[in-house]
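Reviewers of the previous submission asked for a worked example of the structure-prediction workflow described in the proposal, so we include one complete record here. The input consisted solely of the amino acid sequence. No template or homolog information was supplied to the procedure at any stage.
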Amino acid sequence: MPHQNSVMHAVTQHLPWADFDRLVAALETDVDARGFNSKSHLMAMLFAQFSGAEALRDVEAGMASHADRLYHLGVTPAVRTTLADANRNRDSRLFSGLFARMIGRLDRGQRRSLAETAYLLDATAIPLPAHAARWARFSATTCGVKMHVIYDAGAERPIYAAVTAANVNDITAAHEMPIEAGATYVFDLGYYDFTWWSQLDEAQCRIVTRFKKNTVLRVVEELELPEGSAILSDRIGFLPTRLSYRRQNPMADAVREVRVRTETGKLLRIFSNDLDAPAQEIADLYKRRWAIELFFRWVKQVLDIRHFLGRSENAVRIQIAVALIAFLLLRFAQATQKIVTSPLEFARLVRRTLMDRRSIGDLRSPPDPAPRICIDQLVLL
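From that input alone, the workflow returned the following structure tokens.
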């Protein structure tokens, strides 16, 4: 019978180990590793994400029960106290850097052309126990962090992520995000900043967002609407010339307002700097924002980043970065087979069969029956 490695081995083979080794060397994260090196740390955290472990004891017990199959992963079972020390002390940039390298290795076939790409910007709050995270406290009783993400809607995966304290404004984090010239950026009111919009506009990016209720548009042209359209109006105009008495609005060129009523009856004033695309295309782009909300829900519920394995800022940053790495690995692994098309079902099957010896294309098969033990084989002590 041919040898078959575990499901976890098949999923993690998509990790760019050469890039990881270069990061380890650059950040010197294996100095004084004391037997628990960076690779073992990464694999222990991935085991926690894939298996749904909610505490360090779960990771320790789960890995110990599969010690013989960890051999083929090149790691040893993690000890709870050692993993806790590593989460507190090992540089979190190793894991966020690995995520960035994995995104950088995606070719154009995977990330689609810029003409087909819509980058969705948003942030999600992740609460932390009030007694466990003083560094993330922003009120007397509440602690938390924010995960700021640029999500490629066409490729269905994040291309950038950053973690801040929960009281950092979305637009403050946006100023640190990379801008890809010529891309389409879709976002909501948390990024309402004309100065930042002008930077996107100067980079030839298409912007799709929402007007605030109190933003006045000086209309210069009413565009014709197609018959049977759900669009209420399509207008070109100019934003206010000044933001305050002393500040001139950098968004001085003509912009567009597309008014549409949602299925729930809410009236939306959609902003865009694209004066040529059909109004329905602009409205549909804004509607795609729902994809990043689904991504946040998927990461929180399936990869369970609501339960943290460490209390320190470094530990929280490591776990969020590893959760994003796990998300990419699941997508890469799912693409190698055609049987399971649902990402949610695939993730659940990986969790259920994580340490089974089987191929990725065989996740739906029932587990091998437990070997029958003859009573004569038992030794009574």
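The radius of gyration is 25 Å. We consider this example representative of the routine output the project will generate in years two and three.
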